[in-house]
Write a structure and sequence with these properties.
Helix content: 25-40%
Shape: globular
Oligomer: single chain
Length: 286
């Protein structure tokens, strides 16, 4: 027997119900299993040397930014005006609010940002969210959440169409322009999940969404021999209107290179350790 939900739905859940229908959207799903030895060592080293709380999410964000920087034709928006190119790599990082809601922060201009820079900027955004509970996206969600359920879907799609299809600025009405940017990065490992895939947000118009799984033990080939190492599974969903097989191959090649040798590819040259020191330490993080 089906009964009405016994308590008021969080705003995010109401928006989700109004957003998705049975899917006919062109989405590509995939994942990478990566040896996380050097990745964990870099996170621990940056925390110790800088005092900044760098996490896997920040390093993955830096790698995603490099991937789209090196494949600029994938950094685009599908609109009724055709394929529109973004001028910078802007990433949206999901953040859980103190209640049951889910929101996040968009960081702009991350083309060459280091994990430290991303950590500092994102930590500032998270502090603001937790302290004031207010961001442009949260304000927009609250406005939409106040509408009757039958009006949510048309209102959301209308706002996106006016903003991205017609190119009109609705920020003065509380609707942030291109609120999710190039791609979304969300850490499902904090939920205890080792791997998972997530759908694109239709009104977000991002080219991709990445899920960062919980580090787990896995068998990888090291010098031709099976070896147990910490493994990171990075899930990804792409908009096939923007990303094709050729671009997908270029994006994954950069992601793998940056995440398996992060100190070499994600830090400024003066901050990189000596070659013999890279990957020499395996550190388990909670």
């Amino acid at each position: 027997m089906l009964t009405r939900w016994p308590e008021p739905l969080p705003t995010w859940r109401k928006l989700a119900l109004a957003t998705w229908r049975p899917s006919d959207d062109p989405q590509i799903y995939g994942w990478l299993d990566l040896d996380a030895t050097a990745l964990l060592a870099l996170v621990a080293r940056l925390r110790e040397e800088t005092g900044v709380h760098v996490t896997l999410t920040h390093v993955v964000g830096a790698a995603v930014a490099r991937a789209f920087r090196d494949c600029p034709d994938a950094n685009a928006v599908a609109s009724r005006r055709g394929l529109l190119k973004r001028s910078s790599v802007d990433l949206f990082f999901s953040v859980k609010t103190k209640g049951k809601g889910l929101t996040g922060t968009k960081l702009e201009g991350l083309d060459d940002a280091s994990p430290i820079t991303i950590a500092q900027r994102l930590n500032e955004g998270v502090t603001t969210i937790h302290a004031s509970g207010d961001t442009p996206l949260l304000r927009s969600q609250r406005q939409l959440g106040a509408l009757p359920s039958f009006l949510l879907r048309p209102a959301m799609y209308a706002a996106t169409a006016v903003s991205l299809d017609l190119g009109l600025d609705l920020s003065r009405f509380g609707v942030p322009h291109d609120p999710f940017g190039t791609a979304v990065v969300t850490n499902i490992g904090t939920l205890g999940l080792e791997r998972g895939l997530a759908p694109l947000i239709p009104t977000g118009r991002t080219a991709a969404l990445f899920t960062v799984g919980k580090i787990h033990e896995g068998v990888v080939a090291v010098a031709g021999r099976p070896t147990v190492r910490p493994v990171l599974t990075l899930g990804a969903t792409f908009d096939h209107r923007i990303v094709d097989g050729n671009q997908l191959g270029r994006l994954q090649a950069t992601l793998r290179r940056c995440l398996e040798s992060p100190a070499e590819h994600l830090l400024p040259e003066k901050e990189r350790p000596a070659p013999e020191a890279q990957g020499s330490t395996t550190i388990a993080l909670p």
